[in-house]
């Protein structure tokens, strides 16, 4: 049984669809020469193909599906770049590690044509890609997504938590300095300390 989830992380589980899918582990060396093992899957393609005919403009071919999977991996890689250049510069590593940081997209799910076009970009390579590549591309609207959760904050002392809350303006300034004043971002610390710039 295929479990289908909305692409929006905030939305709950949606439905089950009959069928099987496959996961693969891929190994590569990162920019620093370290071995990495990541998992990719054909789940998104299987779910897409159950709902759409092959001639549909939103049909996900194997090449586009692989582009989708690899794009998500590069979001995590570029998210780590943002963590190093932004969060680790304004707070301790222990504090920075309570955040999930990645590149994401605005305005709903992109058209499946994006996953084909992404292959044509010179920078779409795990050892080349940077956050700026996504933030400055005309392919779609991408933004920096920085968020944490109450249970993670609770592992820090009250002083460390308050230091994080007090650092919101500094995080914004650092993003603007490094990635430019037109950079889109979403920062979520807690309900009282969050901001989004589109």
Compact overview of the structure:
The protein has 198 residues and is of the alpha+beta class. It contains eight helices and eight strands. 39% of the residues lie in helices and 23% in strands.
Compressed to H and E, one letter per element, the order equals EEEEHHHEHHEHHHEE
Treating each run of at least 4 consecutive H or I residues as one helix, how many helices? 8
Approximately what portion of the residues adopt beta-strand conformation? Answer: 15-25%
Q: What integer is the average pLDDT?
A: 83
Q: What overall form do the CA principal axes indicate?
A: globular
Radius of gyration: 18 Å
Report the structural category.
alpha+beta
Number of strands: 8
| Strand ordering within the main sheet | 5-6-7-8
How far is the first residue's CA from the last residue's CA? 37 Å
What number of structural domains do the residues give? 1
- The residue ranges in which pLDDT falls below 50 over 5 or more consecutive positions are 1-14
The helix fraction, in percent, is 25-40%
Largest sheet: 4 strands, mixed
Structural overview:
- The chain has one domain.
- Strands 5-6-7-8 form a four-stranded mixed beta sheet. A two-stranded antiparallel ribbon has the order 1-2.
- The protein has 198 residues and is of the alpha+beta class.
